[in-house]
Specification:
Elements lengths: L4 H9 L2 H62 L8 H21 L2 H13 L8 H22 L8 H34 L4 H30 L6 H24 L12 H77 L17 H35 L3 E5 L5 E4 L1 H6 L5 H7 L3 H5 L3 H14 L1 E10 L5 E12 L5 E10 L1 H68 L5 H9 L2 H32 L8 E3 L1 H11 L1 H4 L9 E5 L6 E3 L1 H22 L5 H6 L3 E9 L2 E8 L6 H6 L17 H12 L3 E7 L3 E9 L5
Parallel strand pairs: 7-9
Antiparallel strand pairs: 1-2, 1-5, 3-4, 4-5, 6-8, 9-10, 10-12, 11-12
Helix pairs in contact: 2-3, 2-5, 2-6, 2-9, 4-5, 5-6, 6-7, 6-9, 7-8, 8-9, 9-10, 15-17, 17-18, 18-20, 20-23
Length: about 800
């Protein structure tokens, strides 16, 4: 028993959740450790095989380079320096791509760079050093292949089938290919010379012996790989090619062995060596392809094994956890029932005796019996406290104002029916259950919420605090809140309590008054501006009409006078010296030619002034009591024309460029004059923002990054979308949140009223059922997006 005292002492100090957590950790740690080690081991084998696949892919590209280098060396040794480098360069590019992809993992870049350096020294014509350079490239390529085989784990492969396939493709077949290439070049030289010397005969016999040895070793190793192939798919795929290749090699060695068996001049056939070299390269490709398939299949098997282990362990842990949780919940349910009953009695919420009953037969049933005895003694005390509570409850529940108590962290403790009804809930309990943090869930404006918390922490009470809050259905109301802090004898904050009044009607009245003031200001502003612009347009039309009519009559009269002068010149060819001198002095021919052009220029100027007058009348047109069809582009163009004087260059900056990207838009039903006011406010603000962004910038700096306003229109979602973008200084997130607020402005005192964008939002949203939004990035610019329905809903 003394041995268990530390364990008993530890368990006595822990609560049930802590006890179960401790036992769970002790139980699960070795299981998790074993699962981790097993999965890690399988994962390392998967990574090992993936590295082999990378190496095999790299070696496949290296084989192409190896093949064409061998052929290039053969051509060089037989005196043919016109070998086509196209395939060689392609092979070099292919392996360069692989090195760029896998070089960091295989550490092959240094060896490949050496090969590239050798390739740079190759020449395409009459270079006696080509054979030596080819030899260096072959040696470097062989070194690269061995390096890749080492760093990609191929040489360390523990499985016999993949190991012997690697051995064949990486070591055996390349060695035989070098021998075959040397035999081919040597036999080609002999056949070209039609004579063989003793040294060449000895060399061929020596190469034949090496070829026999490598052929026997290749056949033995690949057959070992076939026998140890779990899938059994290597022998059906490769045995036929291997046997044919071995037979061809045997034929090659038999031909070479004849050199040692006869004294006659025997010239080996070069084509046989060439065919065997081609067969060797083909077999090498097939072996590497099958090696790649073996490795991929191995990864799949290991992945499946890893998944099986995970599923098995997780299933086992799930069953154990399920039983463990069942045991835990059974214990905790009893503890919960005891705790709940205790709270109900101590809080005075149970005036009747409720005996606890348990289904379990363990030691906890004895605790419940003791608890039931205590409960009998507490019932009388609970009933006696109810009378006092009833008096308070009557006042609490029948008050017409909302009354509440909240914890310091913002959760309702109690509320009266008036507050629940005010917030749209059927009962106080429903309201209490719906909120976990009153301040963050209730208040519409987070900043007002922060102000309320800060004020309560600073002063301990809040009087007459107005804020907008959410009701249960998502609608909002305005409330006036009074609350104060309640502390215990130790000076610790226990809860807040207070009252709430619904002041939505009063706030609605205030907002209607504010909207009326805003509309009055807008109407007065538009009326004054419209009268001014319309008056200017009207006054321009009278002199314009007179000038245009006069020019229209003057043009044919001038033409008649010119024609008359020509008749005089034709009828009186012998003019006096005085007439000739005067004609030369006034440059009569030029004047007669230029006078009609002057009249045409004045006519064009009148047309331009007429267009300006039309734009002014379009902008200032008075709205009807109902919406009318209107061309948005016409309204934007007239606004740009009115603001033209602000867009022109001055001493501080060049012109502000206005780019319009118009889509084909239908006419929309709207109040044109009000929309023109929106365009005027936004474009004027954009010009102001660009002028502010030019501060501390020189004229030349602005020319490099010119001021620009871009206006785009499009049809989206059965409505019209208009975006107005500037490349000014932009605005912060805080300003973006307030930009449409009534009387908010970022301009200096006297330069802005804070009404422009508030009026714009009212026109777009309330008058036309549309939407307006702003997006801005500091030091990049601001974009306003306006969306309007094409057809207004009555």
């Amino acid at each position: 028993m003394s041995l268990l005292k530390p364990a008993i002492a530890l368990m006595n100090r822990l609560r049930y959740p802590q006890k179960f957590l401790l036992i769970s950790i002790v139980f699960s740690m070795p299981t998790i450790l074993m699962m981790y080690l097993l999965i890690t081991e399988i994962g390392s084998r998967i990574d090992f095989a993936k590295q082999e696949i990378i190496g095999n892919l790299y070696l496949q590209s290296a084989t192409r380079l190896w093949e064409h280098t061998l052929r290039g060396q053969i051509s060089s040794e037989v005196g043919n320096n016109n070998y086509d480098f196209t395939q060689l360069n392609q092979a070099l590019e292919t392996i360069e791509n692989k090195d760029r992809q896998f070089g960091n993992k295989l550490h092959s870049t240094e060896n490949f760079t050496l090969i590239k350096e050798y390739f740079k020294t190759l020449s395409t014509k009459n270079n006696n050093q080509n054979s030596f350079i080819y030899s260096q490239i072959i040696n470097s390529t062989e070194k690269l292949r061995l390096h890749v085989g080492d760093t990609s784990n191929l040489i360390l492969d523990p499985d016999l089938d993949s190991y012997y396939m690697m051995d064949s493709s990486l070591l055996k077949l390349p060695t035989m290919q070098k021998i075959l290439a040397e035999i081919q070049s040597l036999t080609m030289i002999i056949n070209k010379r039609k004579k063989i010397n003793p040294e060449e005969r000895r060399k061929l016999i020596e190469l034949s012996a090496l070829l026999k040895e490598e052929s026997h070793s290749l056949s033995r190793n690949m057959n070992i790989g076939f026998k140890n192939n779990p899938l059994g798919n290597l022998q059906p795929k490769l045995s036929k090619f291997l046997e044919e290749y071995i037979q061809n090699i045997k034929q090659q060695t038999n031909q070479l062995d004849q050199l040692n068996q006869t004294n006659q001049e025997v010239f080996p056939n070069p084509s046989l060596a060439q065919n065997n070299l081609d067969s060797s390269l083909l077999l090498s490709d097939r072996v590497m392809t099958e090696l790649d398939l073996i490795l991929k299949q191995r990864i799949n098997q290991l992945t499946q094994k890893q998944q099986f282990v995970c599923v098995f362990v997780l299933l086992t842990l799930s069953i154990v956890t399920y039983l463990f949780i069942g045991f835990y919940l059974a214990v905790m349910q009893t503890v919960y029932n005891l705790t709940l009953a205790a709270k109900r009695m101590t809080n005075g919420k149970s005036g009747t005796l409720e005996m606890l009953a348990l289904e379990n037969r363990d030691e906890l049933s004895q605790v419940v019996e003791s608890f039931n005895k205590i409960a009998i003694a507490l019932v009388e005390a609970i009933n006696s406290s109810r009378e006092a509570e009833t008096k308070y409850r009557s006042i609490f529940e029948n008050s017409i104002e909302g009354i509440f108590q909240t914890t310091p962290d913002g959760k309702f403790i109690s509320v009266n029916p008036a507050l629940a009804k005010m917030y749209g809930y059927d009962s106080p309990q429903e309201l209490i259950n719906a909120f976990t943090n009153n301040e963050r869930q209730l208040y519409v404006n987070d900043r007002r919420c922060d102000e309320l918390t800060r004020y309560k922490n600073l002063h301990g009470q809040v009087i007459g605090f107005e804020s907008e809050v959410y009701r249960q259905d998502g609608s909002t109301i305005w409330i006036l809140e009074n609350s104060h802090s309640v502390y215990n004898q130790a000076g610790e904050l226990i809860y807040y309590e207070g009252s709430v009044q619904d002041i939505s009607y009063r706030k609605a009245t205030e907002m209607e008054l504010q909207a009326s003031q805003l509309q009055l200001i807008q109407n007065e502003k538009m009326s004054a501006l419209g009268n001014l612009v319309a008056g200017i347009a009207h006054e321009m039309n009278n002199p314009l009409g007179f000038i245009a009519a006069s020019l229209k009559q003057a043009k044919p009269i001038i033409a008649d006078i010119v024609e008359h002068l020509k008749l005089y010149q034709e009828s009186l060819p012998s003019a006096s010296d005085e007439i000739k001198n005067h004609a030369e002095e006034i440059d009569l021919d030029y004047s007669l030619e230029d006078l009609p052009k002057m009249v045409d220029s004045m006519t064009m100027a009148c047309d331009r002034l007429k267009n300006i007058s039309t734009s002014l009348r379009t902008f200032s047109r008075a709205d009807q009591d109902y919406k009318v069809p209107f061309d948005i582009h016409q309204g934007i163009d007239s606004t740009i024309l009115i603001l033209k004087h602000r867009l022109k260059a001055n001493k501080q900056r060049p012109d502000i460029e206005v780019i319009t990207e118009y889509s084909s838009l239908p006419q929309i039903e709207c109040f044109p004059g009000q929309l023109n006011q929106v365009f005027m406010n936004i474009l004027a603000n954009a010009i102001d923002a660009l002028d502010e962004s030019n501060a501390n910038r020189s004229f030349e700096e602005i020319q490099i990054n010119p001021n620009r306003i871009t206006i785009k229109t499009s049809v989206e979602n059965e409505g019209v979308k208009i975006t107005i973008t500037d490349n000014g200084k932009g605005m912060t997130e805080e300003i973006k949140q307030k930009i449409f607020d009534h009387l908010f402005t970022t301009k200096a005192v006297g330069n802005g009223t804070g009404l422009g964008l508030a009026i714009a939002r009212q026109i777009i949203v309330e008058k036309h059922g549309g939407a307006i939004a702003v997006d801005s990035t500091l030091a990049q610019g601001t974009e306003f997006t306006i969306q309007l329905p094409i057809h207004q809903i009555a």
